[in-house]
Each structure stands twice: as C-alpha cells, then as structure tokens.
C-alpha cells in the first residue's frame, strides 16, 4: 500500500513539473539576448557595419597598382584588289586576314595630391559611422524590448487586480443571495451584485486580450513565432539613482546620434582634402608585356609578329577648369560648416530631451511612493467595508465604491511603476547606456 501511495505521489509530482514547464519564464535578460540574436533590423545593421568594415582597404582607396590581362583577335574575309604604281594589279577573292594581340599591363598612381590617403582615412570614418548606426539600432530595439517587456509585467499586475476584484464580487453575490434567502435583502441587491460581477468579468476578458496582444508584440521584437507562449516576472525594479549631469556627460560620449554627427564632420573634412588634391599633379606609372601577330593573304607582308616589354609614365596637372576647382572647394567648406551646425543642433536636442525626460522620471518616482500608499489605504478601506457589508451595516453602493477604489489603486500603482521604468529606459537610451 505504501509503495502504491509513493508511486501515485511521484506521478503527480512529475505531472506538476511538466505542467509548470509548459510555459517559458522569460526574463528581461533572456529577452534582450534573443533580440540581439534574432531581431531583423539588428541583423541588417550588423551586415551594414560589416560592409563598411570590408570596404576599409588600401586597394579601395587607390593605393595599390592595378594589373590587367587583355586579348584581341580580329579576323576578316574580303575580296581585295591592289594596283601598283607600275600599273599592274593583283586581285584575290576571299582573302583572309587575321590579327592577334594579347598581353598584360600594369598601372600605378604614385601621386595624386594625397587624395588616396584622404580617401583611406575617409573609409575608416565610414566604418565608424556604420558602427555608430549599429549601436543606435541596438539601443532603439533593446529599448523597445524593455518597454514591451515591462508593459507585460504591468498588464500581468492588472490581471491579478481584476482576478482579486472578481473573487470579491463573487463573495458579494453569495452574501447578497444568503441575505435574500433569509429575508434581510431584496432581490434588487442580488441583481445589482450579479451585474457588477458580470462587468468585472468583461473587464477581465478585455485585459486578457490586451495581455495576449502584448505578448505577440514582444515576440515580434524578438523575431520569433507570435504564438510562442511565455510568462514574465512580476518584479519591476526602477533605478532611482540617476543624476542628470552624469547622464548629460555620458550622452556627449556615447549617444550614437551625436557620435554620427561628429563622424560626419570628419568625413566632410576629409572630402575637402580630396577636393584640394586636384590642385596638384597626378603621376601614373605604366608597364606591360604584349605579343602581337598578324597575317594577310594579300600585300607586301604576309605575316608579322612582335613581342616585348613596355614601360613609361604620364603626368597631368589641372591648369584651368572653368573655376570648378574653386567652386568644389567652397561647397566642401560649406558642408563642413553644416556638419558643425548639425553637431550643435544635436547637442541642444539631446540636452532638451534629457532634461524633459529626467523631469518626467522624477515625477514618476514620486508617484510610485504616493500610489503605493494609496494602494495600502484602499486595501485597508476595502477590508473594513467588506466586514461591514457582511453584517449589513453598509450599502451595496458604498461597498462597490470601496471595491473599485482598491482595484483602481492597484492599477495606478502598477502604472506608476511602469511609467517610471519607461522614463529610466528613455534616459539610458539617450545616454547610450542601456545594459545588454
């Protein structure tokens, strides 16, 4: 008998384990890791960053020579007549002619006013720009994942609050039914209690719908099947030690939007160097080895061939191009000026966003404490009201008011935590300091 009891307990234990593991418990750390691995926009940004890195070569900058192999084969069949100066002539139909040339040529620009070196530095800056864009994409997507995750936590809290109020509403219906049975209450009280219970159940269904849709949205950010089911943790931890001055200092160093503007200015400066290079001569070295052979059915020479090494150099200098050089340099300088203006503008926008977001953050921190106190007071009020309702010393309207006050207080407390967390995420995103 003891063995049978032990076996049944083991089966029930395994069943409970299987049921509890059916739903994945997704932590915020796991969600961010999945997003970094799977999110489509992050993947595209990673590939774009790799493209920029791949382009940083001395060959792409023009610092290396180029070698070209070529072959040309020309053939013809013609009817030809040749008349010599002594009056004699020669005619040949279907005369075949053929010319074959092949070889290898080498070209190397050894000086172009330092344009190639400026181009190489510009490629490096473009790589940094790609890295900054990757960082921006990651920060934005991780911020979205955090927001969607804690939205789920908030909605989970609201589900719990609605579950609680339905339990209370069911107790109220039962109490009203008992009082009606013993003649201490009217049928109207029972009907009112049932209507309020039905209203609460409708609210719970709506909340379940919102909760499921929020899960689908988070799965989208994680780039996985929308139907994957999971639960989230209940805890919302808000970092209440953020300092505005520290955030502004971090933003100047780490904000990817500002970083991109600084890199764009450096790219514009290197573009000016490349434009100015046109004021200097360009020197190219050339060499090659070629083989040539030709055959003719008619003429003084029936066959000719040659082979050998060729080499040389060429140099060119722009003396006058219709003032285009002056115009191009002026445009390049204006682009540098625009880049500096964009940096100043981005700094102002960044400081404004940080200041307003930080004020919202402080307000939300205060709301957390206030709503936590309100929730405790509303719970105490509901307990007292429920006791009075059981003994019939309070109206159903007063009881319903206390019940709704408690539910609303719980929802507001959850919302305050969520809004404070969103403020924290927004500040850290602006500072380029989200941990992932």
From TrEMBL:
Signal peptide: 1-22
Superkingdom to which the source organism belongs: Bacteria
One GO cellular component term noted in the UniProt record for this chain: cell outer membrane
One annotated GO molecular function: efflux transmembrane transporter activity
Entry's localization field: Cell outer membrane
Record-linked InterPro entries: OMP_efflux (IPR003423), TolC-like (IPR051906)
Keywords: Cell outer membrane, Membrane, Signal, Transmembrane, Transmembrane beta strand, Transport
Alphabetical list of Gene3D superfamilies matching this protein: Outer membrane efflux proteins (OEP) (1.20.1600.10)
Coiled coil: none
Cross-referenced PANTHER family: OUTER MEMBRANE PROTEIN TOLC
Family listed: Belongs to the outer membrane factor (OMF) (TC 1.B.17) family.
Protein name: Outer membrane protein TolC
């Amino acid at each position: 008998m003891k063995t049978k009891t032990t076996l049944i307990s083991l089966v029930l234990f395994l069943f409970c384990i299987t049921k509890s593991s059916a739903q994945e418990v997704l932590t915020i750390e796991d969600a961010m890791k999945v997003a970094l691995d799977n999110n489509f926009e992050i993947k595209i940004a990673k590939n774009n960053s790799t493209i920029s890195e791949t382009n940083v070569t001395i060959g792409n900058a023009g610092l290396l020579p180029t070698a070209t192999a070529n072959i040309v084969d020309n053939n013809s069949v013609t009817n030809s007549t040749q008349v010599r100066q002594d009056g004699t002539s020669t005619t040949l139909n279907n005369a075949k002619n053929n010319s074959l040339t092949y070889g290898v040529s080498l070209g190397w620009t050894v000086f172009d006013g330092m344009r190639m070196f400026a181009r190489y530095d510009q490629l490096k800056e473009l790589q940094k720009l790609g890295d900054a864009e990757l960082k921006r994409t990651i920060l934005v997507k991780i911020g979205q994942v955090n927001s969607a995750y804690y939205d789920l936590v908030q909605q989970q809290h609201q589900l719990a609050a609605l579950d609680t109020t339905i339990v209370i509403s069911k107790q109220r219906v039962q109490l009203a039914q008992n009082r009606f049975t013993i003649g201490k209450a009217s049928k109207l009280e029972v009907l009112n209690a049932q209507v309020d219970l039905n209203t609460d159940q409708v609210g719970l269904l709506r909340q379940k719908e919102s909760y499921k849709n929020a899960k689908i949205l988070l799965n989208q950010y994680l780039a996985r099947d929308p139907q994957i089911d999971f639960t989230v943790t209940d805890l919302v931890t808000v970092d209440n030690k953020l300092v505005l001055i520290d955030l502004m200092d971090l933003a100047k160093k780490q904000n990817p939007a500002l970083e991109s503007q600084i890199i764009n200015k450096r790219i514009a400066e290197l573009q000016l160097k490349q434009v100015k290079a046109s004021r200097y001569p360009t020197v190219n070295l050339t060499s090659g080895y070629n083989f040539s052979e030709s055959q003719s059915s008619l003429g003084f020479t029936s066959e000719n061939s040659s082979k050998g090494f060729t080499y040389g150099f060429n140099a060119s200098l722009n003396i006058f191009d219709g003032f285009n050089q002056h115009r191009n340099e002026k445009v390049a300088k204006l682009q540098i000026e625009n880049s500096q203006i964009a940096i100043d503008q981005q700094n102002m926008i960044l400081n404004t966003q940080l200041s307003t977001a930080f004020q919202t953050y402080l307000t939300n921190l205060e709301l957390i404490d206030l709503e936590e106190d309100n929730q405790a007071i509303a719970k105490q009020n509901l307990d007292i009201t429920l006791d009075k309702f059981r003994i019939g010393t309070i109206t159903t309207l007063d009881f319903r008011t206390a019940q709704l006050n408690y539910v609303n207080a719980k929802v507001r407390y959850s919302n305050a935590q969520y809004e404070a967390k969103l403020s924290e995420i927004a500040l850290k995103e602006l500072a380029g300091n989200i941990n992932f």
